Amino acid sequence: MTDAQQPPAAEDRRDFLKLAGAGAVAVAFLGAGAASAFARPAFPRMAVSTGVIMPDPSLCIGCLTCEVACSQVHLEAGMSGVPRIRIFDAKDVRLNPEIEKHYPGRGTFRQLDCLMCPDAPCLPVCPTGAVQVDPKTGARIIAESACIACGKCEAACPFPVMSESVATNQKPNGQRKRIIYDPAKNVYTKCDLCFWRAEGPACVERCPVNIRIRQGVVQSSVLCLDVKPADQAGFEKVRAIEA
Amino acid sequence: MRSVKYYAATSWGDAVATLAKYPLAKPLAGGSDLLGWIKDDLVGPKEPRWEILVDLRTIEGASGYRYSQGDGLRIGALTPLSTLETAKEIVENYPMLAKAFAAPASPNIRNVGTLGGNINQRPRCWYLRGPEFSCYKKGGDFCFAVTGMNQYHAILDGELCYIVHPSDTAPALLAFDAKAKIVGPRGEKTVPLSEYFIGPRVDVTRETILAHDELMTEIQVPAPQPGVKTAYFKATNRETYDFAIVNVASWLKIKDNLVEDSRIYLSGVAPTPYRATIVEQTIKGKRIDEALARQAADQQMVRARPMSDNAYKVDIAKALIRRALLEAN
Ligand SMILES: Cc1cc2nc3c(=O)[nH]c(=O)nc-3n(C[C@H](O)[C@H](O)[C@H](O)COP(=O)(O)OP(=O)(O)OC[C@H]3O[C@@H](n4cnc5c(N)ncnc54)[C@H](O)[C@@H]3O)c2cc1C
Ligand code: SF4
Ligand code: SF4
Ligand code: SF4
Description:
The complex is a heterodimer of chains A (243) and B (329).
Chain A: E1 15-17, E2 27-29, E3 52-55, H1 65-76, E4 86-89, H2 97-102, E5 109-112, E6 131-133, E7 140-142, H3 152-156, E8 180-182, E9 187-189, H4 202-206, H5 208-214, E10 225-228, H6 232-242
Antiparallel strand pairs in A: 1-2, 3-10, 4-5, 6-7, 8-9
Chain B: E1 5-8, H1 12-21, E2 25-28, H2 34-39, E3 52-55, E4 65-68, E5 72-76, H3 81-86, H4 88-93, H5 95-101, H6 107-112, H7 115-120, H8 144-147, H9 169-175, E6 179-184, E7 187-192, H10 200-203, E8 215-221, E9 228-235, E10 246-255, E11 258-267, E12 274-275, H11 277-283, H12 290-301, H13 312-327
Parallel strand pairs in B: 1-3, 2-3
Antiparallel strand pairs in B: 4-5, 5-8, 6-7, 6-8, 9-10, 10-11, 11-12
Helix pairs in contact in B: 11-12, 12-13
């Protein structure tokens, strides 16, 4: 683990805010440190997430296992079942030759998820403090119990998703950004790196291409979905992949 | 085959109570699907080894059908398919349904196989039916079809699990907007068949809304309407005795040669019977001809997401949709 991945130790925190309804989870600020592309002078820099879901679209076969696995584990944990990761049909993606060889004719896709911004704009705008930094993983998460569904975090998120007309799953849910509204629970929700799971994010664990890569059936030095440090470099890398 | 306990239910209430009491009890109809399942010992983290079979055939009044011009058709869930495919009232008033009831398997299987059993049968994915594969549907943690052999798997709506719905009768009943009567510990309810089937996203371990202790008692088909044209086509590898690669059931209400309303369902293509809503939208208010049928089928299948080995099913689905539309012309 690099320093950037390390969750902040309590004594490192210059400031510690207990926010309304935040319960055990609180936001940790590390003080205004190094400048970043998203430096926001009004807010001190928050602890970076230990992880961000790093997709490789060239390996994706659009099977939607990640979406459904995401829903399942969150439902089982008592949270909204809206998939936090979403797959979109993407004609511009060039497939990895290994995928063309093993799984021909499956189409080309993009996996879009939260980028775990180093200075997450979704966090400070929340009036109840529901958008938080998980102290263990550093993931930017939404505490559903504190969410009043005002939509400010969604509006603040700078990253749109592709049009739902090209969403691979044909069950539109009105998703526009990396934060998604769940009408069933009347809350907003987002990727939280499955922070409570010892196995880590369910999508990374269950992606069948990942499983075949780990088994050596598909030869690839990178995974279809991986967890990488969400420092500035990781953040820029996901942005570059998505561009 | 290992031994199991047999219980002859005396009433629907008795069957429900027995199921509610014993988590390892399973309803038995004709047994043509369930007994094979047990014989193959298909178990997994979420698929128990059933120990008690609760026979529904011994319930009085559970088999048989009634037809009236006002009420339409009511079919007891335990009615054998062979009874239905030749029933005069069905052949005369719902010829498309009679065709669908005659479509599954072989005459022998249709003699024992019931309508309720056909609608509630488990899917035929060859990994699911292999005891050595602990896949998602049995509560395992992998879908072998996604990266394995999948020539008979889903081309539409697959996610996590890529089964196709196996029932030949379901799409026909859905095209007629049939309803299912369900009994459970909290009493009876009637639900549209269109809300009966669930996909892997809702719960990968089952295919219907039924809970462990709920049973389908009856299928209700609305009375036939004037001006309605129907069609049913099933494509298989073998002439007979085979599950559908694709089947399509269409119900078109035509007025002044224009399509006023329609319901078009496919089976064998998706984890649940699949409603071809794009076809329905495309033909609404129009007169069906060769070009429109082609356009509607093509537009529907833009939605298809074939797997490595089953893109051929997309072309078959298009062809059957075209045929069903033109037959109604
Ligand atoms: C060789 C072969 C080929 C076949 N080909 C086809 C085909 O081409 N097309 C097709 O559609 N089908 C096909 N089938 C399936 C066949 O039609 C079904 O096996 C039959 O209809 C099931 O009816 P059953 O009464 O024997 O059900 P059972 O085997 O007794 O039960 C099937 C399942 O439904 C449940 N069940 C039964 N009744 C009820 C009820 N009333 N309420 C709730 N749950 C219930 C049981 O618990 C069980 O899980 C084939 C089967 C075989 C063996
Ligand atoms: S939800 Fe949007 S703003 Fe918030 S961390 Fe993720 S990508 Fe950044
Ligand atoms: S599980 Fe993997 S291959 Fe399947 S859609 Fe998700 S990222 Fe793509
Ligand atoms: S398609 Fe469904 S039933 Fe078949 S292996 Fe995959 S998860 Fe199991």
